């Protein structure tokens, strides 16, 4: 019988196991002013965006801290009240994951979106999930 490791307790051998990171999410939903009538009770409504993101969070065992909603704000500008609050919650480590219905709800300036997803969020340790775009940065961007 092997005797080399018999004096090591089980708890000591469990130290090497990988601990799964716990994600606390903020769901971000946005509806622009020019679209509010067209999307009433449809797939882009704030409520539908929220429901889709909650379902995605539940599937991935992600806890939700808060839903951030910008109503009647254009996606071309990132100076939106709920977006600013969400970024502050990231900076203060209240959340470490963002879930959106799709990229267009996050913003319309694609270079700015790419900057957040490829540079800002990885630097801050934030996981980004865009449900309908099948994007989850948990394991990096591919």
UniProtKB/TrEMBL annotation:
GO molecular function: DNA binding; DNA strand exchange activity
Pfam families: Resolvase (PF00239)
UniProt signal peptide: none
Domain spans labelled Resolvase/invertase-type recombinase catalytic: 24-142
Protein name: Recombinase
Source organism of this protein record: Streptococcus pneumoniae
Source organism phylogeny: Bacteria, Bacillati, Bacillota, Bacilli, Lactobacillales
């Amino acid at each position: 019988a092997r005797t080399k490791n018999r004096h090591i307790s089980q708890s000591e051998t469990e130290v090497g196991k990988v601990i799964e990171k716990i994600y606390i999410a903020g769901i971000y939903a946005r509806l622009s002013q020019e679209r509010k009538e067209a999307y009433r009770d449809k797939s882009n409504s704030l409520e539908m965006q929220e429901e889709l993101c909650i379902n995605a969070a539940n599937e991935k065992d992600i806890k939700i801290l808060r839903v951030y909603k910008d109503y009647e704000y254009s996606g071309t500008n990132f100076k939106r009240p709920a977006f600013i609050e969400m970024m502050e919650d990231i900076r203060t480590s209240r959340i470490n994951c963002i879930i959106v219905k799709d990229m267009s709800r996050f913003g319309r300036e694609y270079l700015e979106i790419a900057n957040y997803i490829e540079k800002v969020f990885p630097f801050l340790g934030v996981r980004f999930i865009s449900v309908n775009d099948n994007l989850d940065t948990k394991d990096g961007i591919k």
